[in-house]
Amino acid sequence: MDRGPTVEIDLSALAFNLKEVKRIAGVPVIAVVKADAYGHGAVEASKTFQRHGAYALAVAFSGEALALREAGIRSPILALFEREDIKGFFTHRLTPVLHDLKTARAISKEASKRGLRLDVHLKADTGMGRMGFEDPEALYKAAVLPGLKVTGLLSHFSESDISDSDYMKLQLGRLKAIRDGLRRLGLKPLCHMANSAALIGFPESRLDAVRPGLLLYGCPPAPPAQFSSGLPAPISQGLVAPAMKVTTKVLALKRLKKGAGVSYGRTFITTRPTLTAVLPVGYADGYMRALSNRSYVILRGKRAPVIGRVCMDLAIVDVTDIKNVKEGDKAILLGREMKGSLTPLTELSISPWEIAKEVSTIPYEVLTSFGRARRVFVNR
Length: 380
Fold this sequence. Notes:
Blueprint: E1 6-10, H1 11-25, E2 30-32, H2 34-39, H3 42-51, E3 56-59, H4 62-70, E4 77-79, H5 86-91, E5 95-98, H6 101-114, E6 118-123, H7 136-143, E7 148-154, H8 166-184, E8 190-194, H9 196-201, E9 209-210, E10 244-249, E11 252-256, E12 261-262, E13 268-269, E14 274-279, E15 296-299, E16 302-305, E17 315-318, E18 330-336, E19 349-350, H10 352-359, H11 363-368, E20 374-378
Parallel strand pairs: 1-20, 2-3, 3-4, 4-5, 5-6, 6-7, 7-8, 8-9
Antiparallel strand pairs: 1-10, 10-18, 11-14, 12-13, 14-17, 15-16, 15-18, 18-19
Helix pairs in contact: 1-3
């Protein structure tokens, strides 16, 4: 048998989410598909976003962009962090995001040698402290280099908690000031800064375009309880459609007596005669060891708690209270039991936020952790 879980990606959910984001944003959408589209499969996700009107796609490095070009994707592609593959910007028709004068000059030199002008976006560090021009004057110098056509200006929020927007306002103000400086140079680039959280909770940040990631994959950027009713529907109600469903099958059933230890370290001791189901999935497959004794799976329409430590290849759940469980039954690790619906996650579902809360992480890590799993695509 194949090891690990199966990751089912609902492409119709991706299309639905893009449509809702476009409707709420009211400006072009740059779909972030880096990290294999947050574990959803960059090629298929990008094809879906391209088909349904994404203005552009955004990847982290040029290798990701090359895979999209080889798959026949024609949309503009922003390379958010690439600094080394200068020739690749030209051969793969990419739009590099420039963070410093050194890289800008190298691209300018290559463009001039080729007799071309390359579309570029300039990144201003307005308070993230990671990458981008800290000095606006250096950014202005890059903007007027020969061979470069500045078609975009961007920055990135370091905080996008919708409950406190003071620092967001400060960062946005800095970006607008730089935009004004470029306009004085006769440049009018597309200005974009809003990620998923800012798109929802900080409408002023939508500018000329938005750059969401998590929302497109059907996960709110904060727990739904944090959203007020005044935010845009349906996203304010958590009604983006989850696109990822992670399943596996029951490998074996085992009956244990009261007082039996379960898995490594006997961190779980049965308090009654217990029927367990062994699942062929473990931390080597992205199902985190930190979920030991803390999470659930869905089996036959009910929640079954994970008991004992999650192993490298196996996990164990208590199915004593679930009738008629058989070897080969499907177990849902992430997502919902309901099929063919774009309704939100319910009690008979396990959301990325639920798992993230249990292991003190964020949904981004939960989604991308299943990136190596077997993936299938459906279109409802």
